[in-house]
Amino acid sequence: MSKLCGVWHHDLRPVSQQEAAQLASAFESPGYAGGQQYAEPGLLLGAAAESHSGQPRQLYPSSDGNCCAWDGRLDNQKELVVKTGLSEGWPNSALALAIYERNGASGLGALLGDWSICIWDARRRMIVLASDYAGIRPLYYHRHAGNLCWSSSVTEVACWTGATEIDDLYVGSLLLRGSAAGRTPYAGVFAVPPGHAVCVSEAGIATKAFWNLPVDRDIRYQDERCYEERLYELFREAVKVRLSGAGPTCAELSGGLDSSSVVCMADRLQTESPSRARGLNTFSYTHEGCADEKYFREVERLTDVSACHLELQSYPAVAADAAGGTPAWWVLRFRELARRMAGLSSDVFLTGQLGDLIMGNTNDDTDQVAESLARGGFSKAGREAYAWARSLRAPVYPILWRSLRQAYSSWVPPAAPQASVGAMRADTEDSLRAALRSLLACHERERSEDAPWRHAPPGRRRRFRAVYEMMQSRSLQAPEALQHISYAHPFAHRPLVEYMLSIPAHMVCRPNEPRRLMRRAFAGLLPPLILGRKSKAVYTSAYIGALVPLAATLLQSPAKIQLVERGYLDCESLTSRLQKFTQGLDCNEPQLRQVILLEFWLRNQAARGSFPQMEATAGSGAAGS
After folding, report:
1. In 330-414, at which residue ranges do the beta strands (DSSP E only) sit?
2. Rounded to whole angstroms, how far apart are CA atoms 578 and 594?
3. Distance (Å, rounded) from C-alpha 327 to C-alpha 597?
């Protein structure tokens, strides 16, 4: 993978020696092998390739004076060669620029893969920054007083621009929702929205969508086996395009259905093409009382992999001194993965992320009843409601009432909680001060007014909403320590995601049959032990083991907690919850995890001089978008 960065002065003021030195230094970051640069009056942009990739020409200038800097992987080169009229062998940067020159920013949806790009449009005197639909490759920018700065590293943008104020909306979103769509901790520094192009000219900034949720697409087959065959075909393609072509492929293996499917498919593909096989290495995580071990060892036994087991106690979920560009979990574990992958000369790391959501890992999908009602299938809706009621051991009437509201009004039920650190419970104490809550509520209303998921059929709105929120949060983005490699998620393969969102929900899962379609489609791929697994890997004990000592540290001086000093949290409420947490009592633990994570990240930043300790009221550092 590559690193992108650059600076543009609208007034054509020359790029200073200091700015040029900063960009040159960015290209010399660990994991990168130098860089290419393109310069015009007032403009300097560049790209540096990952040291093991051997990828040529990450930066491509055209004869018209335009230039494209590319970071990522492109999966449909052959298709784009036909569309653009270029011959085979042109670099991804040239194909992307040709698509832009033909169709503008709206044409970037034709680029299939995990990518971020920067394009200099000479005729329009405009910089275009864009990321793929899932936001997997990082890209950040800052614009102020006619100057634009961007980079794949949020730390670099904040450092180069002197952004030392904290963004209140970021804090509120992170503490209440577990993510902050489009925001960063640094006021004025923003992430490029997934599936959008940020077009910056002297006149201002315009954000244009080039991909939208397939809310109007409806795929139906007469033969149910067609759904299984198509899913298998798309998943095979999703893994194949992500395998390393230069060295060994690494993959996460938890023993769950998602990561096991990725590893088993990668192993099958390498077995079928031994001439291209370059090795498959898996990383699994163990801890005291680990229930996953028998499952990932079964996959190891039946596949040709080199397995590595990391003890989570040595790489805790959060550490007091593990600083990074943004608050992040498992920083030490990702750094260890980066170290070991460098020793293997591996440039690809596969995960099973997004599989839970896309493959229907839920025991409650009563939205299917609303879908039947909206289609006029009243008898079918009644049967479905009764089946779900029996499965959930719940009364049937609330299910019917909720489904009627969904089918015949604009009401949308709350997004289904996901099994993740960021899953928040809105009905419990969160310690937020009223000023921050009010600021966040106003922002949330504006952000969701015309969200694309609202245009989906009633019974599918919640599913589309969950996917949309996950994409906008960039939760699939490569961790900071692994940004120089291809950190890839086969279940986020765009054709696969669009397919799973377009087929009938009752094919994906049914009462007492979560992942119904996946289990049928992968019956010949997964070991029986994995195929029949109903449990899910969780690391609750690992989180608690890492967080309890930090909570105890905060209790030593509650009034000096930065989130309290800055006016974000109520001291009395937070102190009470921290005490309950250390005693193992109910305290809305998922949200409290985010509090502790953010607090110690702020302390690290203050120690480095990025966010000086100060007393403030929420709202003083909020940045506009």
Report:
1. 348-350
2. 12
3. 7
And the tokens for 3?
Answer: 């690193």
CATH superfamily of 225-357+473-531: HUPs (3.40.50.620)
Contact 137, 72 (CB under 8 A): yes
Q: How far apart are CA 74 and CA 385, in angstroms?
A: 44
What span, in angstroms and rounded, lies between the C-alpha atoms of 574 and 567? Answer: 12
Mean pLDDT of the chain: 91
pLDDT tens column, 455-476: 898 888 999 999 999 999 999 9
**C-alpha closest to that of 416 among 469, 452, 370, 372:** 469
pLDDT at position 303 over 60: yes
CB atoms within 10 A of CB 415: 17
Q: Where are the alpha helices (DSSP H) in 241-330?
A: 257-272, 293-302
* Residue indicated by tokens 């569309």: 83
Average pLDDT over residues 508-536: 95
Nearest alpha-carbon partner for 518 in 262, 220, 228, 234: 228
Contact 453, 215 (CB under 8 A): yes
For 2-139+192-209, give the CATH class.
Answer: alpha beta
Bridge partners, residue 59, by sequence: 69
Cross-strand pairs, 5: 46, 151
Segment 20-42 mean pLDDT: 87
Domain limits of the chain? 2-139+192-209, 225-357+473-531, 540-608
User: By the 8 A CB rule, do 350 and 283 touch?
Assistant: no
Cβ atoms of 530 and 247 within 8 Å: the answer is: no
Instruction: Write down the residue that tokens 């998921």 correspond to.
Output: 453
- Give yes or no on whether 2-139+192-209 and 225-357+473-531 have one common fold: no
Q: What is the pTM for the complete model shown? A: 0.94
Residue labelled with tokens 């080039």: 210
Q: How far apart are CA 31 and CA 193, in angstroms?
A: 25
